[in-house]
Task: structure prediction
Amino acid sequence: MSSMRAFVAVLGRDVFVTGRELPSFLAQVLVQPVALLFIFGKVLGQLGYTQPGYAQILLPGMIALNAFLVSLQNTSFPLVLDFSYSREIEDRLLAPLPISWVAAEKMLFGALRGLFAALLMIPIGFAMLGDIDWKLSGLPFAVLCMVLGSFAGATVGLTVGAAVPPRRINIMFAVILAPLIFTGASQFPWAQLDQLRWFQVLCLFNPLTYVSEGMRGALLPSVPHMAPWVCVVALVAACGIFGVLGIKFFLRRALD
Amino acid sequence: MAPAVEVSDLVKRYPKSRSNAVDGLSFRVHRGEIFGLLGPNGAGKTTTVGILTTRVVLTDGDAKVGGVSVASDPVAARHKVAVVPQRVNLDRSLNARQNLLFHATYHGIARAQRHRLADELLDRMGLSDKAKARVDDLSGGQSQRLMIARALIHRPEVLFLDEPSTGLDPQARLFVHDRVNDLRSEGVTVVLTTHDMDEAEKLSDRVGVVDHGKLLTLDTPEALIRSLPGSGTIDVTVRPNGVDSDRLLDLLSSVAGVERVERIGTDRGGGEPEPRLRLYVAEEPSALLGPVAATLHEHDVAVSDLSLGSPTLEDVFIEITGRELR
Result:
């Protein structure tokens, strides 16, 4: 009982701090995807370098990207700092709740931030690209993929954040984030990659692929896509595997 | 009632380490006591405190705080302990007062109560005008005091203070010492780790000296000092009046109770040079003042200064842990 109360209090602290830093949070989660959406969806389209339907394909992918990547970054980045120079997290590690719950709180909160960032992309996308034609009955499944994608991102974030030593944080961007951004089927439909088989196979290792494909399949059923059940199974599996791994690494960092 | 802290045959071996950081340590801290845990760097103090505050997993043996085993029920143990670490680990995203409030919330203190306690503690720690200050804007001493306030807000049974006055100016040090003494009168048990022997001697009811993960001795500072053989000293400055210095050393060494005589310098206050000598004595130095003065008088050596030096906890520490650098 007291552990539950402490869990809520720890989550409350994170929500409180985010509330106070809202402008910087928004900048952090929106600038990059909005810029991508603008260049690839709007600018290239108007210059005639992309086909007219490309913006349609891009928007669900960008929402998926935000869900997965914002969750990942918002879980991993603070953790690397917390465990190195600031040691801020110690206060929570000494609160009366199991250490694994502190890890779970970090994931839950990272996922919530990712989910929020993904939802924000919807009105922005509609306003920027105009003329978006979604199949509304696919919305519930798209939301399910978005939620699972946020949690998958947060679990990967916990794993990375607890495993990467602080002095390697620069490398984290180059060798982890960039490949995740570009192998996640968010800028292209995975099912049409059959001419580029090796890349298609590579994309299967990125959980983001299943978020993008699941959402695109639900909202734009006419675009070739991966089977929905495959997306759900893969995302649940990713959450399970990285969740366990992340908590294991977190415990290793938190306890000597 | 269970002791505040009970450590039995505690062992900690870090992975990849060839020796035990804590190696069969046992001691008890009584309730309401201020207990000093002393030892050279790397002696196992921090590991022991880490185990007692649930941050380090023990390898063998048992450690209890307030009767709760830290290994089998760490969550309950965290209710009972608080730590003031050496390094600032305040929440930088919150201001001073919020640091206290959120900490209290984690520990389930009701809203009205935590607001009252936060204001009370800020006042007591001399931080009332810093309530809204950002953590980054606090000085070292202010951060330290805020961490003490934070530790106290959930009313722990045992407070662990890790090197509480390292890096503080003398005023801040005194302030912290006064607050620790206040805790004693409130019945909070304090476990203090320090290298500062004056601090340990001044604050602790009992001290335990640890080295190589083992407890070397445990007693009140006074008893430890008393147990130290030959560390009382008498410093004497003389006008030899023709007696040469070797003869002088022989004379003083022959006084019963004097173990060793050392020449520590020469005063050249104008006239004849006056040698200064230090006598190491086995018993209470004041008892030897008479015999020393009498011996010198007999040989017509004039005494121009005579002072007593009593051993300190530092002498005890050096005696039992050795002089080597770690």
